[in-house]
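Q: I'm writing a short explainer about Probable RNA-binding protein 18 for a general audience and would like to include a description of its predicted shape. Could you first generate the structure from this sequence?
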Amino acid sequence: MRGGGAGEKLHYKEANVAHGAAAVYGAGAAGKGAAAKTSFLNGLLLYVVLPVLVLYFVVIAASQFYNPRCSPEGNAMATHFVVANKPNNASLATSLNASSSSSASPPPAPGSKTMRLTAEEAPTGLRHLVFGIGASASLWESRKEYIKLWWRPGRMRGFVWMDKPVGEFYSKSSRTGLPAIMVSSDTSKFPYTHGAGSRSALRISRIVSETFRLGLPGVRWFVMGDDDTVFLPENLVHVLSQYDHRQPYYIGSPSESHIQNLIFSYGMAFGGGGFAISRALASELAKMQDGCLHRYPALYGSDDRIHACMSELGVPLARHPGFHQCDLWGDVLGLLGAHPVAPLVTLHHLDFLEPVFPTTPSRAGALRRLFDGPVRLDSAAVAQQSVCYDHAHQWTVSVSWGFAVMVVRGVLSPREMETPMRSFLNWYKRADYTAYSFNTRPVARQPCQKPHVYYMRGSRMDRRRNVTVTEYERHRVKHPGCRWRIADPAALLDSIVVLKKPDPDLWKRSPRRNCCRVVSSPKQGKDRSMTIDVGVCRDGEFAKAKCLTRPIQPSTLRLRPHQIISLDSHRPRVRAPRSPPLPWGRGVCLTALADRRKPGGLVAIGGRSSQINRRSDQIYGLRAGGGPLEDGSATGDSGASGGWWGFAGGCRRGAPATGAGQAGSSEGLKGAARQHASGQQGGTGQDMKGLEADKLECRLYVGNLDFRISESDVIKMFSPFGKITAEDFLWHTRGPKRGEPRGYAFVQYTTKEEAQLAKEKMNGKLVCGRPMVVHLASEKSSLDSSSSHRAVKDKKLAGGSGGKSQYTDRAAKIAAIKNKLKSLEEGGCSTKKPRLNPDNLTGIREQSHKKF
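A: Of course. Here's the predicted structure. Afterward I'll give you a sentence or two in plain language.
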């Protein structure tokens, strides 16, 4: 029993041990299952839930920057960013945005007075503008690069209206960086009868109406432009914010071409330059435009059709000089270098103009440099001019911020520098100064006065000093030689640095040019750069052109006719001229130079242009005896040492001695000028005749010119025979032929020999089928005087012989006019041989001499 009991006990113990082992094994297995389940849940949380939460917070944080439905002013204005296709969606968008606003302060109910006032009184921004851009599929690939320069995806609303779909029509605008593409509606029902135009003008003229009918909420202004129109959006917003969009406004600018404005209208906004229509006016236009288009089928383009509808509505054009149609050819330096005191809003016709920065190969690339730099840093100040002076070198400095800096030798007045330089041609490719609708000045013919141009090469923001830093590099073109003693900017100056604080409120004040100050000037052999500070004018600060004069003691110089007086800081010197005199009246200041108080002596007296009666760049001074200078032309400019130059002429001997003690004084000069102007000074008429005779001996008359010959052609034809000091190309200034050549010109040489040589070589030469008539101007005067005397004598001899002779003279004149018209019709500028034989040419030459 014990053995069996012990065995049972042992068996029981082993069973318990086995059961415990099984229990332990079961518990271990259960623990492993729970651990596997926990790790699965942790992995699910780590790889699924956590990324979703992170993405959620990232989207919430970034939505305020990238969601176009959010407004910088807060949720109260979010309704203006909802793009809807139907007007009924506006109320739905308002309620949705109102319900998603901050829970801390419950928003007012939709349509309440508080929310309505907030939306109406908010300042005008980019969200309140919608752009309508007229384009064609044929030019889209090249023109869309211009739109990418200024378009801000997500911040601006607008559409490109095409004549047919293009590739971007099926893509989202956010991917292409372009506005949404729309196809204009059919315009076949509208009549178009202009022979030289295109029917596309009908669909482009309806862009504003079609955009208005889309019903976009919160739109205050409808802006129209072409696919090659470049906008500066911030400047456009500022211009439009000055007007009440609830009133009818039609804002834009006419053309730069006077002839274009005459053909169309000075009261029309040219569409290429862009224009803006307020919402109130767009609503009225959409109601009546279709009927208006039926009433004007003979008009040429789209902008004159819109102008016709505006005339029916009675809304005039509100002109703004910042919109530029750019009906020009060539270099736009003159226009942007002296931009009006107004924000630059648009540029157009960029394919017809040279790149704004000549060193950039493409036009779009040059504009990209402008937009990535100055437009981004300080859009309000782009192309705004400032004028200052480097008195150490006697330079005039004109800063067109963000574009170019021009440095000119000498002291030129701000009045002259703010006038655009004619670096371009008019729309008809003619160098006609009367063909522009704004004031211009010629490019300096004197080599020493040609500007040295420094174009913008880079820009950055110095955040430590809160200033913009723009760098300008010299445009390396060859300049003609100059013998002036003023320092050459090309030899001393390679780069210019302009410092300017950003001024976004520039146009919220009254219009005024910024002032510039030369902080550092280049020195010989050292730093070849200049630093200029540009900013708001301080109290009492203005651009002052200093007239540096150094009067000397009388009776110190013995002058001969046509000698130059050179005054430096030490002593005066007399030498012969090596270059022709400069044009008078370019901001130059003169003073009394020398006086030889003897009968028949020589003197040179100068003064401001307002004190001297001048004709043909002539200056009249006083000698000791009171007589005028014979052939006394004068000019002046500040030299490197602080002096100036002037031409002096010999006094005519035998003139009456009056006012001997007044020579060299300003009172004597003024008195002489008054006497000369009134013709009361003794002997002045004889002296004037002698002076004019000397001038006419070097002056050529060039006649019988074809109307296709331009001013530059005349200069090219006559420049091989000598130095041309002046050239007058005559234009029609009145009547239907205004702006066309009159068919003759005058060329002035330095010597009589050069004029005589040009006369011998060019007289009778066939140009465009016409033999030119070239002779001295003095010959023309003598012939005119002799012919007038002969006519008077013949009239006296005829006496009262009756009406038969008068009738004969009239018939002869009519026959001569008919022959002249017939010869003009037969003549032409062709490659065929001229019809005139040498005998006829000789006869015509003799007749032309008799005529003139």
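A: For your explainer, you could say: The radius of gyration is 40 Å.
Q: Perfect, that's easy to follow.
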